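User: Fold this, then the next.

Assistant: Folding the first:
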Amino acid sequence: MLRKILMQLFKGTRSLLTGRFYRFINIFFKLFGLRIKDIFVYIDKLNSYIYIDTNSYHERGILVFGDFEIGTRQYIEKIVSTLNNKVVIDIGANIGVHTLNICKSRKNDNIAVLSIEANPEIFNKLKKNVAVNNCQNIFLVNAGVDNKKGEFE
């Protein structure tokens, strides 16, 4: 029941929510020990649907503010608009915010995106977010990137 209420509350989230509301949401989730995963929302600044895990501080920020790393997002949009026949690599893709931004902001399909995420659980979220947005020419890799050859323990 509570999950349905919260999903309705956050349905169609826009970036109109204030920092005060964000603090309220954080306190609310902590006080009641809420463990809600995969709230499905449309984030208009990303022009994308995205699954949000309310247990993640980072993802709750996207849910409440409707955006993430605004300056980076705008820079990516500017750069991608000038590219043609290129590959963009998103190292540490997390849940795919920048990957989706590249997918939605490119003017043609001649740009491929290679998204790399090391954490298997977060990689699964990345896969879901890319799939639900029907992004083309996105290649996902569940691996870590380092300047040394070897395996991570």
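Now the next one, as you asked:
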Amino acid sequence: MLTHPTPDRLNALGLTITSIVGVKLVGTLGPLRMTYIGVSGLLVFSAALLAVLATGNTPPIPTMALLFLAISSLGLIFGNAAALATEEVKKYAGTGSALMGALQFTLAAIAYGATLRTRPVGSATTGHRPGRDRVSGRSADGCDEFPALVLAD
């Protein structure tokens, strides 16, 4: 049950919507043009996000909006890039698809492994954060803010 829109849910919604729009437009524009549009959007919105973050002041609304737009651009890239890659190796389409899947799985595993090197700030042995209830994990004031992360030693 969707109780409130969190940033990750909104980003997933944007990615889904652009994927659906991409499917509707690919017959008209073709997969190569759709990929160009998606990559262009990703570059523009990522550059704008980097510019906002480089100021040292990260206002939440523009930051989240630019991140939403950058992630949404991926919806125009994923399917079209896979179709273009498969089209290049028509004779070996199954092998090409398997290699793409293996590469995606491997890169996802590497990215996930990198996230395991982070831990919440607090006790390294108990994982308890100062000022938090040990059972619910909520802070003393009941706020559910995201925990700060630091690289593991």
